[in-house]
Amino acid sequence: MSVASLSGSFEREGRLSSVVPDIVDQPVRRRTEVFRRLIVNRQAIALPAMFVVASVVFTLGSPNFGTLNNLTNVARQSVYLLIISLGQLIVIVGGGLDLSVGSVVSLTSVASAMMSVVFAACPDTPLLALAAGLGTGVLIGALVGTINGVGVSVFRIAPFMMTLGISSVLFGTTLLVSGGVPVYGMPPLLGEIFGFGRLAGFPVPAIVALLLVAVTYIVLEWTRFGRYLYATGGNARAAELSGVRTHRVCIAAFMLSGVLAAISGLLLTARLGTGGANVGASMPLDSIAACVISGVSLSGGQGRTLTVVLGTLLIIIVQNGLNLMQVGAYAQSIATGGILILAMALARR
Q: How far is 145 from 142, CA to CA, in rounded Å?
């Protein structure tokens, strides 16, 4: 046999040996790809699965859970946590964390109520009292958010420690100002409009929440700030080298979170008719849980607005179902923490 024929034979054998493993490995590769996609998408599957399980359990546990009145009550209760969760989403997407939202709600409630009471002394200017209370609350939220943002971005304080410290300062200030006593004497107009008011048959707080959801969605998905926010949370150093002013993005994110927390505090105060120092105690954990359950990455750069809406509804459904089943507040806290741990476990890849 000639040298040319031998080389041709070896070449054909080499080609055959390279093709056969590819043919054999194709089913394995397909199964591997399917398995990988299941792992990647299990967070997306987890949220609907939790909804189904919770609905079945609470429907069996309480006949009143699936009634129209109860579902309407769930939607109304979810407004306040939803607004705060939107602000938490913005901060977490940018790579931060805001533990001061509960104290912002409390301070906003007390300060806006006190300001409204002061201006309500003049019966001829009810709109002035309303504007003074609302303006005070929004100003507090913006100021606290700016302080948090400057501390995290300029002074390089860890978001956890910065917002935890601010939360302690705000809560102490709230107790000092109010003396730990609820503030009464607010103008009825605040509750009539933002507490129990309706517009075209829809509750005003729900309309405000839906508008804020739409604005948050547009900001995160369709604006330059939203792209900069995702880039900063994904890799702050790379974003900065690309020309993104990460300091400004961080400050703006915390400021938006503070304003949204203040709006929630104002709506909650209008609903209760009083300013209280403990109205936002559970908001930090619940808002973080709502975001994490929705697939928002605590490392930043990942999260969507509409899924946070679903995560918030799940938290409220669990709380509502446990109330209907006459489960105590301590057990409800255990359930919320368990859901948070389960969501974090599902988010691991």
A: 5
* Closest to 91 measured CA to CA, from 323, 344, 298: 298
Type of residue numbered 333: S
The answer as to whether 127 is a domain residue is yes
Q: Which two tokens stand for residue 266?
A: 């104002």
Total number of domains constituting the chain:
1
In a domain, 31, yes or no: no
Q: Quote the DSSP letter at residue 301.
A: S
Q: Is residue 131 part of a domain?
A: yes
Question: What is the C-alpha separation between 252 and 258, in angstroms, rounded?
Answer: 10
Tokens at residue 255, please? Answer: 């400021």
Question: Residue 319 is encoded by which pair of tokens?
Answer: 């709380």
One pLDDT digit (tens) per residue for the chain, 349 residues: 554 554 555 455 555 455 445 554 555 566 566 555 555 456 667 778 888 888 888 888 888 888 888 888 888 889 999 999 999 999 999 999 999 999 999 999 999 999 988 887 666 677 888 888 999 999 999 999 999 999 999 999 999 999 999 999 999 999 999 988 999 888 888 888 898 888 888 889 999 999 999 999 999 999 999 999 999 999 999 999 999 999 999 999 999 999 999 999 999 999 998 999 888 888 998 899 899 888 898 889 999 999 999 999 988 998 898 888 888 777 777 877 787 787 667 655 5
Q: Domain span at residue 111?
A: 81-282
Domain-located, residue 7: no
DSSP 217: H
